[in-house]
Automatic annotation (TrEMBL):
CDD domains associated with the record: AdoMet_MTases
Name under which the protein is recorded: Small RNA 2'-O-methyltransferase
Stretches assigned to the Hen1 N-terminal domain: 1-242
Organism: Niastella populi
Keywords: Magnesium, Metal-binding, Methyltransferase, RNA-binding, RNA-mediated gene silencing, S-adenosyl-L-methionine, Transferase
Keyword check for Methyltransferase: yes
Gene Ontology molecular function terms on file: metal ion binding; RNA binding; small RNA 2'-O-methyltransferase activity
Length: 473
């Protein structure tokens, strides 16, 4: 079985430093049932490819086997695909051959560990139980471009149809450590089998290797169940940890530093302003991204114009509170539920938020660091691509108006930044240009002559929609 990783990062030969493998050497690593070979078929400053070739011992596989299983035929231990396809054996080889890279260590160039690089992966043959849909469900939310080539059962007998084996190619700009952690977990999830006993240690490995991305993955329960061979007790244990590790709920009423009576007034005004913008946009379907406890959702719920309302948040606890406040348990469940709540992250592609007329991001972006904000931009404006997007964020210039806020301090401890009006415009203009939107900036609340308003808002409208409206008018 063969796995290749190609980098076009400049210089591409940096891949050798990150993986701790010298391009001029062929290296071997023993695993329990075979040998993993690591070598480079091409190395240059423009392009570098490393191969992991896993050579399994068929006799060793039988000796390590736990014995025949009830539904398998008598010769299953001797006639199977294990020596030829990417499976949990490949995950074990990745962990063995690239252990330093998986743990984020690079002795020669430690600064490279955190650098996202354009990487391409090819897995020559991987079995997928569930077909193409499963591969997309696993890798698309992580931002990968996917190319799949499905292989027939037998080219000499096309009437036998397609097999469950694919050649899988992935492209993404990520760190090498992230790439290896994704492959380590998701390869055996595709195969839906493990070659060794799955117990508590495997649950711990899953939490360790997936800690940076699994909690927010839309298919995290599916991944957990398959990785742990459908053992419900272990799955429940891991899911409990994943839910506990989710982001802390940000209560916007507790977020800012104005005096209590002003605080509630500004918070309510912000939500009402966003609601009015959505009404003015004639949106019928709306997604509230980072909905928290559902305060904006309650305002939207009262408006008949909104035929479909979706709230998404990374916090399970916040969604439970929102569900209670929206009284969703008391509503009649129908195939076309008007309002729905889902758990998810804005840094991974999620098809559930695509196809809406409008999206709202109310006091969300300032909670994201630069790499996650860049991911959000792509997820919202490139993939989800609603006709209208409304974004609000604090105006840093107004902070000097707060007597209780020391100079240079932000309004909330979880804020990664707070922008001036000029900085917000610079960001919004770049987004509009890059993703074919027009943007208008508006203050929220009373404006100070020098500092502006406490909250600033950007209303993005896709250009095709603007042209259509102008024609209609």
């Amino acid at each position: 079985m063969l796995l290749t990783i190609t980098s076009t990062h400049q210089p591409a030969s940096d891949l050798g430093y990150l993986l701790h493998k010298h391009p001029a050497k062929v290296q071997e690593f023993e695993i329990s049932t075979g040998v993993a070979h690591v070598f480079y078929p091409e190395v240059s400053e423009q392009r570098c490819t490393i191969c992991l070739l896993l050579d399994l011992d068929p006799v060793g596989l039988v000796r390590k086997s736990n014995g025949p299983r009830g539904n398998d035929f008598a010769l299953e231990q001797y006639v199977n695909d294990r020596p030829y396809v990417a499976s949990s054996f490949m995950s074990a080889a990745i962990a063995k051959a690239f252990s330093s890279a998986m743990n984020g260590r690079c002795k020669e160039k430690p600064e490279l560990v955190a650098v996202p690089m354009p990487l391409e992966v090819e897995i020559a043959a991987i079995p997928v139980r569930g077909g193409e849909a499963v591969v997309k469900e696993l890798f698309e939310p992580l931002g990968y471009e996917i190319t799949l080539q499905r292989h027939p059962v037998d080219t000499a007998f096309p009437e036998w149809g397609e097999s469950r084996y694919f050649t899988l190619r992935l492209k993404h700009t990520v760190t090498v450590q992230q790439l290896l952690s994704h492959l380590y977990i998701l390869i055996p999830v595709c195969d839906n089998d493990k070659h060794y006993w799955v117990g508590q240690s495997e649950a711990e490995k899953l939490l360790e290797k997936g800690q940076d991305w699994l909690p927010a993955h839309p298919a995290r329960e599916f991944i957990t169940m398959r990785y742990l061979k459908n053992q419900r007790s272990l799955t429940s244990q891991v899911m409990e940890v994943l839910l506990k590790d989710e982001a802390t709920v940000i209560d916007e009423e507790d977020e800012e530093k104005p005096e209590p009576e002003q605080k509630k007034r500004v918070h309510d005004l912000r939500l009402q302003t966003v609601r009015d913008e959505l009404l003015n946009a004639n949106a019928k379907t709306v997604v509230d991204l980072g909905c928290g406890e559902g305060k904006l959702l309650r305002l939207l719920q009262a408006e008949k114009q909104f035929e479909k309302i979706l709230g998404m948040d990374v916090s399970y606890r916040a969604l439970e509170i929102a569900k209670d406040k929206l009284k969703l348990d008391k509503q009649l469940v129908t195939p076309k539920q008007r309002i729905e709540l889902i758990q998810g992250s804005l840094t991974y592609r999620d098809k559930r938020i695509e196809g809406f007329d409008a999206a709202a991001l109310v006091e969300v972006i300032e909670h994201l660091d630069e790499p996650r904000l860049a991911a959000l931009e792509k997820i919202v404006f490139k993939y989800a691509k609603p006709l209208d997007v409304i974004v609000t964020t604090p105006n840093a210039e107004y902070n000097k108006k707060f007597d209780t806020l020391p100079a240079g301090q932000m309004r909330h401890s979880d804020h990664r930044f707070e922008w001036t009006r000029a900085e917000f415009r610079q960001w919004g203009d770049r987004i509009a240009e890059q993703y074919n939107y027009e943007v208008v900036y508006k203050p929220v609340g009373e404006e100070d002559a020098e500092a502006g308003a406490l909250t600033q808002m950007a209303v993005f409208t896709i250009k095709q929609r603007t042209v259509a409206l102008n024609r209609f008018l």
